[in-house]
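Help!! Second protein's tokens look totally different from the first
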Amino acid sequence: MATQDAPTNLAELTTLLEDATKVKVAVDGVFRGKYMSKDKFLSAVKGGGFGFCSVIFGWDIHDTVYPKELLISNRGNGYRDLLAMIDLSTYRRIPWEKDVPFFLVTFLDPDTKEPICVCPRGTLKKTVSKLAERGWDAMAGVEYEYFQFKENAHSVAEKKFTGLEALTPGMHGYSLLRTTLNKDYFNDLFDECLKFGVQIESHHTETGPGVFETALAYTSALRIADNASLFKLAAKSIGMQYGIIPSFMAKPYANLPGTSGHIHVSLRTDEGKNVFGLSDAEVEAGGRKDAQYDETKFISQEAEWFLAGLLEGLPDVVPTLVPTINGYKRLVGGESFWAPNAVTYGYDSRAASIRIISPPSVSPSATRFE
């Protein structure tokens, strides 16, 4: 799904950038990017992309090259350039950077012009294309929980990243009062993200010192993947203006629950029907008669198969979902810290790894997995 006012061709793009002198382009994931002059940017669009150093896939978040180098990025190939293709459908402006135009890029192999396997945007596009061949579209939403500290880049370094001051003390989930303590920052997170093309469904305090939870609006998988990464960029950028550092790490405190991210997923037909949902008649009749288990009687056969695939693949994708030592510290406490650490599912269960959300708690059209 393209952003609002996204150009579809070079002529529309040139008109759109008429008042701009520079453009910002960025890589998805841990965001890296740069400013480009408008002339260079338009030339790259017209010419089919521009070169970008492959080392961004060959080093970690501290710019240290991996000891075991990748085939795509290594000393042997001189960390050669990859082809960065500008995705015009991702157009937006950055409200906290004087409304500079902003685009995301997807990386291609410069020889084959095919998406490289380590580019998350290219990999997701391949998956979505396979679904489209069946007449389906992947839909998703993302919820973030995150701690916030009254710190800045210099103060956390001086403290060696320990003993940081929480934005607010105590445990105050869903508090209407706590948000008034930092109301300008709290409201700017919502309002500036809307201007940035990252729509938010809900925004509130969560249990923990200085913890917020923000749910991003349900949309196509490609769009929500971009929005999820962009929200973290937005939160950190807005926080800087208030002397606040939002932290999305899983377990900042050893004696408190950590924070997580929740992904809601479903499939939709070309006609807009939820593939996972039952008909109203099936729901009124007490669910699907051929359901294998009682917990799955209010989801479709396709949804039951999808659930089986999730359960089968979950152990293999955990290193991607939990890529840090700190993340595993959150899982140690298990359900006592709201962190399922086994391959489980359950109807409307927040204690399970996969939560089935279906009738009777929601309408058939809202059926999904979390």
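Here's the second one for comparison:
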Amino acid sequence: MSTGTPKNDSIVSFSPRQRTRTSMIMNCLATKAISTLRPAFTRGIHATASSNAKVAVLGAAGGIGQPLSLLCKLSPEVDELSCYDIVGTPGVAADLSHIPSKSSTLGRLPSPVKWPMGPNDGLKETLDGADVVVIPAGVPRKPGMTRDDLFNTNASIVKTLVEGCAQFCPDAVIAIISNPVNSTVPIAAEVLKKAGVYNPKKLAGVTTLDVCRANTFVANSQGWDPKDVDVTVIGGHAGITILPLFSRVNGAKFTDEELEALTVRTQFGGDEVVAAKAGAGSATLSMAYAGFVFAENVLKALRGEDVTQCAFVESSLTEAPYFASPVKFGKNGVEEILPLGELSAYEKQWFDKMMPELKNQIQKGIDFVNK
């Protein structure tokens, strides 16, 4: 009886040449997988030779932050990805770092309390040199939660994080996802003003999810491919302040009942998801996708591409100091806020209804910082 190592027919020994060939095949498959996962919404714009682009995600361990960070890690537009949250980010970053894409990955937590008091080194490392900062941090909306409930928690979180942006990356484009966006964007602006670094070209609320929903709902109603639809959505990013301009969708035909149903569903799509998740969460995956699309498009614009997308920015189009509408982005951030154009009679009714609500929500954010 042999006392040596038993043979196992299932174990195959590869030559160095075979191992090299196997490695090449695996790398090719990984590259194809990443290309397949990249969203079609980016419409084929390719990266250009330029300096390294750094994206910081604040709230990277949350329900939006994790899938958003994953999509950023897969993007060829991102060279450095920095993840920050109050818990979990070293693990998130370590996990992401195993994905075979070009970007480096950093995960940081808030610095421990120390004496003498000093800056939050974790936030500093995350933000230092960032070109785009995406902020999904905050608590999600749950059934029965009022706007005031959401505001009281998320307002303080956004204020603290934007104070860090003012200190560590004042020239970065800041993309606000944290709700209520109609109030958190004005909060961010007031914080930056107090720090003396406010640039309206570098601050935007992400309303891309409203566009994604409108595109999807219209495509489903008309039997079209969603990638062939581009609905302009104006106003704000909450309830009746969201106004999709379906009258501008070429070739679409709606009855009055269908138009009303599509408009309301776009406005309250978040409620649909909250109800479907039965209190276990809100729209996280679709919001992560929308946030990624917005951030990647901003990176393309900073590198010289012509990009137009809807965003909630400081605006003089209406009586509201901030307004969501089509915006042209360029190397300096917001380059031009495009004219609003004519609204249909139906859209004008919604516009008149939303303006008082939008202005009140904006003022609430401004008052929060200046109280």
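Reply: Different proteins will give different token patterns, so don't panic. The first strand starts at residue 54 and ends at 58.
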